[in-house]
Amino acid sequence: MSMIKRIQQSMITRLIGLAAVCFILIITGMVLVSYNEQKNLYYSQLKTNLALIQKPLEDQASTLEQSILRLGDNTNPDLTQVWFKSTQQMMDMFSGTGVIKNTYLLQPKEKEEQLDGKPSRKVLFGNQALYQSGITSMTPYVLQDQYKKAMDTAEAHGQGMTEVYTDDLGKWISVMAPIKNENGKEIAVLVIDFDYGDILNQLRDSLWRAISIGIGAGILGVLILAVVIYLMLRPIGVLTRLTRKVAAGDLTETLTIKRKDELGKLAEHFSTMIVNIRDMIAKITLSSEEVSKTAEVLKMGSEHTTQAAQSISHSISEVAAGSERQKRSTEESGRGLEEMSVGIQRIAESASSAAESSSSALRIAGQGGEKVEHNLEQMKAIQLAVGEASATIGKLGALSDQIGGITNLIAEIAKQTNLLALNAAIEAARAGEHGRGFSVVADSIRKLAEQSRDSSAEIYDLVQVIRTETHLAMQTMEKGSAEVEQMSGIVNGVHEAFADIIHAVEEVTKQIMEVSASSQQMSAGSEEITASIMELAEISQQTSEFTQNVAAAAEEQQASMEEISHSVQSMSEMAQELRQSVEKFKA
Fold first, then answer.
1. Are 309 and 400 in contact, with CB atoms under 8 Å apart?
2. Cα angle value 30/199/109 (rounded, 5°)
3. Where is the Methyl-accepting transducer domain (predicted)?
4. CA angle, 189 as apex, 185 and 195 as ends, to 5°?
5. Residue 106, SS3?
6. DSSP state of 353
7. What does the CA dihedral 241, 242, 247, 251 come to, rounded to 10 degrees?
């Protein structure tokens, strides 16, 4: 920016220019007022001169009246006669002094006549200059409109004055007053002619004198006011330079102005604002670093939790698959026992053919024993899988507790960040226009804190759901384990029963009579076993459903942990952006 442009934009220059304009207007007004007052005073002096001449004439009104009577109607009187001499001397004495050009007496109103359609009155006495111009005693004098109007005013109110008028001899202003005798009768009208050119020259001289004095006073006043304005507003330039540095991010400099007025207080408050902003930026920098570090810790924890959730989901899927296989095996066992029950009934009904069917029964009993042994092994495998699932779910609960602690830490950090953002917004509001940019940064910090708080609340709710579902799953696993253990006992009993059956079949030929009773007992036992197998099938169905629910919950937890990971990543990026924004300021 060029020097001329800076001067044009300077507040001091504008104020000095405004003061100069005001001074010019004031001086102009004063000159005009002075001119008008001078003009009015001049006209008042004209009327005063009229009164000074009127007074001695009225004092000698009787002599003047006698002189007028001696004039009569003589058109060429001898004014050198003794009775005209005093009056003529008075006319000549007052004329030619100052701006008075002519002094003369006109006939009173009663002697007014019409000449060529215009009013006229004869001149009674006048000064020598008037006579030399061709207007002599007893010569008719035509009254112009302004002249006639001023004369009527004088005869009505004692004095009259014309506006500027022009005749063959020049431009004039005339003042007039009636001359009355002791009885108050008007005997003549005194008229004084003033040369308007002389009056105008004197007024012009007075005007130029007033203009010169006004210009000198105006220049001196503007110079004094310019110095005062410069000294008073010079600290504004220092403040402008400092605000430019602050706007560029430089907070290393403060301002010291040893003044007690408003500018001094402004400089003091501005320096205090810079110090507060500097401290606030330092706190924000530390907070952003802490947020960044916390985000890294949360990111690592979320990654570990995600991996654990994936392992749990895989294990639960295997448990679900085992439960499904257990269900199918139990159904097959149920069908086998139903077939065995039918066979026992046939044995009871066909005791006579028991010997022939003993070999077949032995074979069938052997197969049943193998299936029972197989079911027993499956029960042990199911019991082992349920135990492992219970342990895994316990680990899941522990990890959920860890996640809850982390979310509490996030919520606390978000709360502190929100408080810092609120303090920053308050300080920015106090800074006014200079703190508007920092207010945007504070608002971004506040939004980041609110997002962190909301994310931690969602995480906490999900963790609570996982912990609840985990607790239910553990209870279900414990119940399933107990049922599996009971079913194992039943299967062991079935295995022993099959051993007895095989032994009985071997002795069937010897104890054919006992087969019928034993077959009835076996039929009843087989029905109980069938009921137990069906109950085991239902338990397997429930176990499969529970494991599927646990698997779904594990998948939801995995998805939640992935969302947490993304939120933590976003928070880390925002903290980095905040750090970069704060680094623009030099503290």
1. no
2. 120
3. 301-537
4. 160
5. strand
6. G
7. 150
Q: Does the pLDDT of residue 4 top 50, yes or no? A: no
Q: What is the mean pLDDT of the chain?
A: 75
In the chain, what are the domain boundaries?
3-222, 270-581
Q: Encode 33-82 in three state secondary structure.
A: HHHHHHHHHHHHHHHHHHHHHHHHHHHCHHHHHHHHHHHCCCCCCCCCCH
CA quadruple 50, 52, 53, 59: dihedral positive or negative?
positive
Q: Compare 239 and 128 and report the one with higher pLDDT.
A: 128
Give the CATH number of domain 270-581.
Answer: 1.10.287.950
- Strand 140-142 relative to strand 165-167, pairing: unpaired
For the beta carbon of residue 89, count every other beta carbon within 10 angstroms: 10
Cα–Cα distance, 57 to 129 (Å, whole number):
20
* The two three-digit tokens of residue 144, written as one number: 């112009």
Length of the chain: 587
What φ, ψ does residue 189 adopt, rounded to 5°? -125, 120
| 535 CB-near residues (< 8 Å, 6+ apart) | none
Structure confidence by residue, pLDDT tens digits, 312-336: 667 667 766 766 776 676 667 667 6
323 and 540 in contact (C-beta within 8 Å)?
Answer: yes
Say how far apart CA 414 and CA 411 lie, in whole Å.
5
Question: Which residue type sits at 383?
Answer: Q
In one-letter notation, the amino acid at residue 436 is: R
Report pLDDT digits (tens) over 491-523. Answer: 677 677 667 766 766 776 576 567 667 666 766
**Residue 448, both tokens:** 């980041």
Place of tokens 């670093």: 289
Phi-psi region at 170: left, alpha or beta (left = phi > 0; alpha = psi -120 to 50): left
Structure letter (DSSP) for residue 138: T
Cα gap 164→274, rounded to integer Å: 73
DSSP state of 121: E
- Residue 168 DSSP one-character state: T
Instruction: Say how far apart CA 585 and CA 212 lie, in whole Å.
Output: 58
Dmax over CA atoms of the chain, in Å, equals 210
Query: What 3-state DSSP class applies to 135?
Result: coil
For 576, how many CA atoms within 13 A lie in the half-sphere containing its CB? 8
